[in-house]
Design brief:
By secondary structure, the chain is of the alpha/beta class. The longest helix has 13 residues. The strands form two sheets. Strands 6-7-5-4-8-9-11-10 form an eight-stranded mixed β-sheet, sandwiched between helices. The protein has one domain: Vaccinia Virus protein VP39 (Rossmann fold, 3-Layer(aba) Sandwich), CATH 3.40.50.150. The radius of gyration is 16 Å and the shape is globular. It is built from seven helices and eleven strands.
Length: 220
């Protein structure tokens, strides 16, 4: 599939998949979207100082990077598991401008470690950020009652509808702790109903730039 690095509206990069006309992040602003959906609507609502996070769709590592930055600001202990079936190539990572756009040069080496580390091994990125990248299909997630927060950042239902089904959300629901939070940029009615059918309490929230709404779900 043909891929290219493009600049989004806030100046930050994403990867565009030409055959699907799909991006890893919003064309209206990759960093803006990531902060709005996953930090403002997710991490900000966790009351613990030790947080276990599951990312569905590790992709460019942007969400891991901003979570790492926030963990240092807030003195949080983060255990981060990122699941990705098709990892981004290192030559693509080298073209992404997230560290510069975030003015986070002190985290540049950490971003390199995030992508340069081996898959399926525990990596101490910093004193308060443990990372495990798991290269596998979302249907192979087998953790039970382990995560406080889920970043659901798969490609959209338009191009990969199988990733937004009751089957997937049941797996994720089982992986989460009671009262765990799931956030996603999607606001499709079919997605909301699939979440509700497996036991999530779901609310619509204002979306990031370019999207009217997004979803946040709580395991009840």
């Amino acid at each position: 599939m043909k891929r290219k690095i493009i600049q989004t509206a806030d100046g930050s990069h994403t990867i565009h998949l030409e055959d699907w006309n799909e991006q890893y992040h919003s064309k209206h602003g990759a960093i803006q979207e990531a902060y709005h959906v996953f930090i403002k609507s997710g991490l900000d609502h966790c009351t613990k100082t030790k947080i276990d996070i599951l990312e569905i769709g590790f992709g460019t590592g942007l969400n891991a990077l901003i979570t790492l930055i926030e963990s240092h600001k807030r003195k949080l202990q983060i255990n981060y598991v990122g699941v990705e079936k098709f990892p981004v190539e290192l030559n693509e990572v080298g073209q992404l401008n997230y560290v510069a756009e975030l003015e986070a040069q002190q985290f540049s080496d950490y971003f390199d470690q995030i992508h340069g580390s081996k898959w399926d091994e525990v990596l101490d990125i910093s004193d308060n950020f443990l990372l495990v990248k798991q290269q596998k299909d979302f249907f192979e997630i087998d953790q039970i009652n382990e995560f406080d927060l889920v970043y659901f950042d798969a490609f959209g239902a338009r191009v990969q509808p199988e990733l937004w089904t009751e089957e997937v959300f049941k797996i994720v629901h089982s992986a989460m702790k009671s009262s765990g939070i799931l956030v996603t940029y999607s606001a499709k009615g079919s997605v909301r109903r699939a979440m509700q059918s497996v036991g999530f309490e779901v609310e619509r929230l204002p979306g990031p730039p370019g999207k009217r709404e997004m979803l946040r779900a709580i395991k009840i």
